[in-house]
C-alpha cells in the first residue's frame, strides 16, 4: 500500500495555474490581463503597474484631480495622440477651461481633429447640469466609432450615472477617461481603474492607484512629464529660489518705469 | 406582359388611423360619409357595427367608437406613397383609375408591369417578397395578385388576397370564376344580372354579346374584353413628382412631441418611399406644422412652424431621420397645439446605395461617426459641437479659435504633409499652457517670507521662468502689454501668470493668472 501511495504521489500532475486557463482569470496578487490589448500610456513606470500594461479599452478610467492643470493632459497626450495617428477620432466633453491650440499641437495632437462638446456654454439651462454632456458621452461610447473620449464630469455625479457610462463603455473600442474632482475619492466607483493625480514638483506627477484589478499599491508612482520648463528653470524650481532678474522686474514699482517703457496715455 | 396588382382593402381605414394619436391596442374605428357607416375595422365589427348602419345605430352599439369622415384626398395621398414605393421595382406603375360607371367607388389598387424586372430581382416570388418588405413601413394590408392583363389583375386583387396567374389562359380561368359584380358596370346592374341568373363572369361571357350590349351598354363588354386580354388596354405610367410634398391632417390636436412624432413617422415613411423610387437620398427636409388658431383675429399664416432638418450625409434611413426629427422637435417650443402636418423635400442627392457589410470597415465607421455627430448636433445645437483652430496671433486669448465642427469630420483627413498652421506653431517652440483662460484672473499680492509677490489659490507663487514680453494688437484696439512668467504653486503645479506693464487707474501693476499647465 505505501508503495502505491508513492507511485500516486509521483504521478500527480503539477498544480494547475488558474491564470493559464483563461485570460480573464487571475490571482489576487497578480495584475489582471485583458482580452483586448490595452493602449500603451507612453510612461513605462505606469505601464508596469496597470493591468494589461496600459489604459484599458472598453472600460472607464477614472482620474481624480485636485484642480485642472496638474499635468493631466501631458499624462494622457501620448496615448491620445497615438489614437489620432491611427486615424480615429478623439472627443473631449465639457473641458473646464478654454484650450490652447498651440500647446496641444506641441503635445502631438492634431488640433483641428479634436472634437469638443461644450454643453455648459449653452444659453438654455437644463434642470440638472451636465445632463446634455452625459447624454452625449453615452451616445459617443455606445456608437463604438470614436477612438478615445476624455470627459470632465460634473461634481457630485450620482453613482448610477457613472455605472450607466461604464456599461455604455463596453461598446467603445478605445480608452475612455473621465476626470472628476478629488472629493469623489470617498465614493465607490463603477470604473475598473481609478487613479488620483497630484502635482509632485515641477513637471512631475504623483499617481496614486486607488483601484485596479490587481493587488493594492501603497506608494504613489512618480512620473516625469515632458518638461515645460527649461533646464535652468528646472534647477531653480528644485532650489526653490526666484531668479534675480524676475525678482527685480517683479518688484518694479509704477513710479520707477524703465526709460524704454511705453506708457499708454489713452488707457490711463 | 406580367402585371402585379396591389390592392389595399383597408386603405381608407388605415389612412384614417394614421391621423389618430397613437394608442395601445387597436381602438374600434369606423368611417362614415354624410349619412351612414362606410367601413369598420375588426374591433368595431366585433362590437356589432356593420357598414351601412346609421351613425346613431353604430354609437348605440359601441359608444367608444371613433368615427371619422371618409376623405378621398387623404386616401389618394396614402395610395400615392404605395405607388412611389412600387416605382423602385419597375418604371411602369399605374394607379388604377375608378371605373367609368361609378366614379365614387375608388378601386385603391396600384398596378406594376414587372416582366422586364423579373430577371434582375431573381424571379416573381423574390420580387414579391422585396415588394412586401418595401411596403411594410407604410403599414397597409395588401392583396398581391399577378396576371397577364392590368385590368384582370386589378379585378382579381379585389377578391383574392394572393394569386399568381402565369399566362393569359390562367388569367381567363381565374376571371371566369370571379363574381360578376367585379366589373364596374356589373355592380350597377347587379340585381338585373342576378335575376338573369348570371353570377360569375363565366356566365356573363356565355350569353350573346349583342344582347348584353343592348341591355347594359357597351361598357360591360369593353371591360370584360380588356380584362380577358381581347382588347388593347394602354396605360399611362405614373411620373414621379420632382419635389415631395405630403400632408396629414391630424384627427385630434397634438399637444406633445410624441403625438407629433406618430404623424411625422407616417410622413417620413412616405418620404422614404419617394426617395427609394428614384434611388436618391435626402439632404434636407422640412416639417411644417400648422397650429390651432389662438383667436379668430389671427392672420391665416401666423400659426405655422416650419422645422428644417439638414443632413450632413444624405440618407434615406427612416430610423435615422426619425431620431434627428425627434431631437429637433424636443428642442422646439410650439406656440399652440398642432392640427396639420406637412413634410416637404426637394434637395436630394442621387448616388449608389451603400454596401451592406457584415464586418465594420473604415467606410461604415465614417458613416457611424457622421451620424453620431449629426445626432449630437441635433440635440445640443450646432454651436455646442466644436473644434479648435489655431490662429496666427501673439495674443494668447486670440491664438485659438473655436469653430463649429462639420459632421463630415474625418480623422486623418486634415493632416496635410506640408504641415500648415500646426507646424508653424510647434516651430516657434513657444511655451503655452493647455488650459488658457479667456478672461485672465486677477491675483492678489501679499507678503511672503519678507517679499511681496503674487498669490494664487491662497498660496504664494514661485516665479520660475520669464519674463516673456508680449506687446501686440494695437491695430484692432485690443492692445496688450504684458510680461508673462511661468510660476509654481507650492505643490508643484505650474501656472502661467502675467503682470501688466501699463498701470491701471489705481497706479498699480496687477498680476493676473492666464493659464495652467495641464
Work out the largest interface and the residue count of each chain.
A-B, 78 and 80 residues
CATH class annotation of chain A:
Alpha Beta
Strand segment count of chain B? 22
Residues in helices of chain B, as a percent range: 25-40%
Which strand order do you get reading across the main beta sheet of chain A? Answer: 3-2-4-5-1-6-7-8
Task: Let me know the average pLDDT of chain B.
Answer: 83
Q: What is the 3D form of chain A?
A: globular
Task: Provide the descriptors you would attach to this structure in a database record.
heterodimer, A: 268 residues, alpha/beta, 8-stranded mixed sheet, 8 helices, B: Dna Ligase, domain 1, 4 domains, 7-stranded antiparallel sheet, 5-stranded mixed sheet, 17 helices
In short:
The complex is a heterodimer of chains A (about 270) and B (about 525). With about 270 residues, chain A is α/β, with parallel strands linked by helices.
Q: What secondary-structure arrangement, pairings included, does this model have?
A:
The complex is a heterodimer of chains A (268) and B (518).
Chain A: H1 2-11, H2 44-49, E1 60-65, H3 72-85, E2 90-93, H4 101-106, E3 114-117, H5 131-143, E4 148-152, H6 159-168, E5 176-181, E6 193-199, E7 204-211, E8 221-224, H7 231-239, H8 244-250
Parallel strand pairs in A: 1-5, 1-6, 2-3, 2-4, 4-5
Antiparallel strand pairs in A: 6-7, 7-8
Chain B: E1 3-7, H1 11-17, E2 29-32, E3 37-40, H2 42-46, H3 55-61, E4 66-69, H4 72-86, E5 93-95, E6 109-113, H5 118-121, H6 124-135, E7 143-147, H7 150-159, E8 162-164, H8 168-177, H9 184-188, H10 190-195, H11 201-206, H12 209-216, H13 218-228, E9 244-254, H14 257-277, E10 280-291, E11 304-315, H15 318-331, E12 338-345, E13 348-350, H16 362-380, E14 385-390, E15 400-404, H17 421-428, E16 435-448, E17 451-456, E18 459-460, E19 462-472, E20 480-488, E21 494-500, E22 511-516
Parallel strand pairs in B: 2-4, 7-8
Antiparallel strand pairs in B: 1-6, 1-7, 2-3, 5-6, 9-12, 10-11, 10-12, 10-13, 14-15, 16-17, 16-22, 17-18, 19-20, 20-21, 21-22
